[in-house]
Amino acid sequence: MPVVSFGVMRSDNSSLVKAAYDGGMKLFDTAHGYMNGRNEEMLGGFFSTVPRDSFFLATKVKPAGVDSRTGLPSRDTTAESFISMFNLSLSRLKMDYVDILYMHAAESVEMVRHKETVRAMLDLKKQGKVRFIGISTHKNEPLVINTMVEDGIWDVVLTSYNYRQTYLTEMNSAIAKAAGAGMGIVAMKTMAGGWLDRERTRPVNVQAALRWVISNPGVSTTIPGITAFDQLETDLRIMRDVALTEQEKAELMAEASLQGLYCNACSNCVPGCPNKLPIPELMRAYMYAYGYRSPVMASELLSATAAGANPCSGCQTCTATCVKGFDIREKITDISRLVNVPNDFLS
Ligand code: SF4
Ligand code: SF4
């Protein structure tokens, strides 16, 4: 498995996928929910033209009925709904099986150990519709990974991992433990939002950021999001030249002290908010809009949180404090304007 793979999430371009495949990438990562299914359909179109054993396909299914604020399952979180969504993914992909199936965006022990969902995933593996089962996580990652290791049934984890996380000691320890237990570690959010400012005048040194992730021997591969041929060229170059230079290291250290757009999703701010707003998700929507320049992704995430338009309007002052010094109220007020923009106007 090459150390750089393809995060397909925001790409609907099969020529780009073909160029990555021809360039030596092996793992292509999508999800049931990306682009309302068009992402999987596009991949299904391309991969039906090449030998099935020449690539790895990973997809993710988000269990139904999970509370977006607490991350906890409900009565609607059933094995049947999970399997039905997975079967739809399989038909969009035009495949008999996927190589990796992730439970999408788990953030609590309750979800890692959710009996119905775990049973569904083990059944699909037994039926040969899935080769490896895993969990994707971008919140409470060390807890999720450590729980997965304890349970011993998981093959792979897809986790946020980048030089800007403020809990790297816990992350590095969880990754080492999981790798030692034989789990595959796939890293995402490796570019930490791609930009350090809302106006996009200061880019993250993406080559250095990716090399930094790869320099962890526990990491099996990474899935940077690729939407353009110049990005692909950069990623293919890094795939073949992985060494992080001393200068890159110094640049990353200097960047790490700046605020940037990346929210840790550490939830340290949430207890300070009397309305218990889903601040990490709102900050992620902000990063999608200004870092990824994807108002569609930002809008979808905002809808999922059900925070509504201008949820901070009832507060005189913001009592939620961010470990990175984000002006939480300002960012929420800014991004929540998207709630009132109809989807037809977003691209
Ligand atoms: S301003 Fe917003 S984030 Fe801050 S405490 Fe009030 S509702 Fe919570
Ligand atoms: S806004 Fe700040 S404190 Fe809150 S989750 Fe993000 S990084 Fe953590």
Question: Can you put this structure into words, describing what you see?
Answer:
With 347 residues, the chain is an alpha/beta fold. The chain folds into two domains: 6-255, TIM Barrel; 270-345, no CATH class. It has helices spanning 14-22, 38-47, 79-93, 109-112, 115-126, 141-151, 168-180, 206-214, 229-240, 246-256, 279-290, 295-305, 328-335, and strands at residues 6-7, 27-29, 56-61, 98-103, 130-137, 156-160, 184-188, 221-222. β3 (56-61), α3 and β4 (98-103) form a beta-alpha-beta unit. The longest helix is centred in the first third of the chain and has 15 residues, at 79-93. The model has no long low-confidence stretch (mean pLDDT 95).
N- to C-terminal separation?
A: 33 Å
How would you describe the shape?
globular
CATH architecture descriptor name of the largest domain: Alpha-Beta Barrel
CATH class of the largest domain: Alpha Beta
CATH superfamily of the largest domain: NADP-dependent oxidoreductase domain
State the helix count.
Answer: 13
How many strand segments?
A: 8
Count of discrete structural domains: 2
Instruction: Describe the oligomeric state of these chains in a short phrase.
Output: single chain
Bound molecules: iron/sulfur cluster
Report the uncertain regions. Answer: none
Fraction of residues in helix: 25-40%
The chain-level structural class is: alpha/beta
Strand order, largest beta sheet: 1-2-3-4-5-6-7-8
